[in-house]
Amino acid sequence: MSLWGGRFSQASADEFKQFNDSLRFDYVLAPFDIQASRAWAEALLSAELISSAEQQQLDQALAELAQAVTVDPQLPLLSQAEDIHSWVEGELIKRIGDTAKKLHTGRSRNDLVATDLRLLCKQFTQQLIRENLAAVQALLEFAKRYQTSLLPGYTHLQRAQPIVAGHWAMAYVQMLQRDVSRLRDAGKRMDVCPLGSGALAGTTAAIDRQALAHELGFRQACENSLDGVSDRDFALDLLHIASTGMMHLSRLAEDVIFYCSGESGCFAMSDRISSGSSLMPQKKNPDLFELLRGKTGRVLGHLQALFITLKGLPLAYNKDMQEDKEGLFDALQTYQHCLAMLTFALPELSVNQDHAAQQALLGYSNATELADYMVAQGIPFRDAHHLTGSLVLLAQQAGVALEQLDLAAMQQVCPQLQADVYQVLDSQYGLHKRQALGGTGPSAVKLAIKHAEDWLHAA
Ligand code: ARG
């Protein structure tokens, strides 16, 4: 049975019904619709719009329905109902008859769907925080395992300066910590209850909306009914966070794909998380990380889609808003799944330590150290930069590393250089110099790990 129809003399065309119905995707709102309905029935009792016996009957039937949906979340899909709200009401009517028809007193699907969606988003927000924390834990374990393993660091994808793999992993810890803080922040903003806004103008029922909001676990009731039924900022917030979070995972994935490539060879994946080629027997492909990178596009697309859907809508509810769900659900599930896959994959990833250490020294990545040495001899940095550049050119032309140039040859370019310059050119030297907060030096990385562990324990 449809929730409307009294003023119609013809039934909906099948074509229209199929186009209009949303049950096939909004059925996932069932537990939240039932939760909101139980609270609403209680509010109706307090407003003396239903009797205590009726409220108990409704509550009992709703509890049974909740149980049925827990056992089989796809149960609603067996019906022809228009949407999840129609399904819940229809099921209640089947179970308890006329009393069920009183449940919709003073409410609308407009305030109901906005409430259901917020309840779902609140739950997802907590789950996403937990998944991010687990991923941070996995990154920390990687960082500790490879706390001192040298790795070439890049800018412009040109070898720049040696770093340690632990420092690389801790950069992503920073990003995920920001994502957690964004989720917490959005969680506070979405914690406002629209139920009791009616269709758009507020409800005629004498409802204590603050009590209703608290009953549903919200911080407070929304303060404008037009905004209450039409606000989807909380969905945009989550889509934006999912997009940022996925962008972080995508950049991490890109780094891993590169470090696992034949050209770099600094990282290796276990067989458990890589796949082969149907044609080229030698291949071992980083599919897992490519999928993390690839799924990012989908999530970013859902953010754009909802912005564009909402941008021209007049107040208050418009059916366009039914389009908020599929992309949002897909984005949140994808983000959650990708975080879980990263957590799963990190222990399967290793650093080829000897090879990576050798690679870290190539490409004149100790040139900055040489320039700094000259500065210590009293040469202004700009001149030191130029002189070091000339020495790099000299070494390049001879096909050797800076530390392989002999002192006499170097002194021709820069007479201030002494024999102790070779200490400065050693791979460990530059690393140990970078001890200031946030650097790749051993004590700085150790401190970063300690800070992140403290943060995780407090989370
Ligand atoms: N299925 C609808 C949605 O998701 C529920 C709200 C319907 N409201 C209405 N006035 N037709 O947006």
Automatic annotation (TrEMBL):
Domain of life: Bacteria
Family from the record: In the C-terminal section; belongs to the acetyltransferase family. ArgA subfamily. In the N-terminal section; belongs to the lyase 1 family. Argininosuccinate lyase subfamily.
GO annotation, biological process: L-arginine biosynthetic process via ornithine
Reaction equation(s) it catalyzes: L-glutamate + acetyl-CoA = N-acetyl-L-glutamate + CoA + H(+); 2-(N(omega)-L-arginino)succinate = fumarate + L-arginine
Keyword field: Acyltransferase, Amino-acid biosynthesis, Arginine biosynthesis, Cytoplasm, Lyase, Multifunctional enzyme, Transferase
Lineage: Bacteria, Pseudomonadati, Pseudomonadota, Gammaproteobacteria, Alteromonadales
Parent-protein residues present: 1 to 459 of 614
Keyword Lyase: yes
Signal peptide (UniProt feature, chain positions): none
Pathway: Amino-acid biosynthesis; L-arginine biosynthesis; N(2)-acetyl-L-ornithine from L-glutamate: step 1/4; Amino-acid biosynthesis; L-arginine biosynthesis; L-arginine from L-ornithine and carbamoyl phosphate: step 3/3
Listed GO MF terms: acyltransferase activity, transferring groups other than amino-acyl groups; argininosuccinate lyase activity
Protein name as catalogued: Argininosuccinate lyase
Enzyme Commission number(s) of this protein: 4.3.2.1
Compartments it resides in: Cytoplasm
Cellular component annotations (GO), alphabetically ordered: cytosol
